[in-house]
Amino acid sequence: MKEELISKKELLEQTGISYGQLYRWKRKKLIPEEWFIRKSTFTGQETFFPKEKILARIEKIKQMKDDLSLDELANMFSPNPAAVTLHRDEVVKRNIVSKMALQFYIEQKGEQHIFSFAELLQLYILDQLLQTGEISLEEGKCVFDVFEKHYASFQGRSCELLFLRKMGIAICLLVANGNDVYVEEKAKIIVRLHVPTCVEQLKLMVSEG
């Protein structure tokens, strides 16, 4: 499963941003370095980007750059979440996750009143998957398990959550972002979720208060 790429020239034309803006945002870490992909073409070396991600990121930067400084934007887009905690009442009040997802989390982990950003992220991702009907509550345990055991090992690097199913059996895994994934014929990738995008969305919801 390969991501569709867009060339730098096409990107600048399509978004209306300048070469200088693109590389200033890169230096400010608003756009991950790993998204700048050098490839050989018949005209020589050219730079390409993962199309869907870069277009979404630039659109968001353009929407928010008048309200936030570049440093604030960089912090929001960073895959390293800030040291955020939120009380359970606030999680419910702000509709950050559904009551069903929150109740399920408490059933699995035990009663608690304060949630760290990492715990909120698990909850948020589970809720996203439940809302779309892509996984069952029971399968949600796999999401908790893989995040608890392996997410920290990425140490702020970009990664994706993959949820596969084969003959009714679910498998959940985290992979380094941008890696090609091939599965056997009878297995199907149900979900491929870009975790940094979820981090950004969750940060926005938390910061909006």
TrEMBL record:
InterPro entries: DUF4004. It comes from Parageobacillus thermoglucosidasius. This is DUF4004 family protein. Pfam families: DUF4004. The lineage of its organism: Bacteria, Bacillati, Bacillota, Bacilli, Bacillales. It comes from the Bacteria.
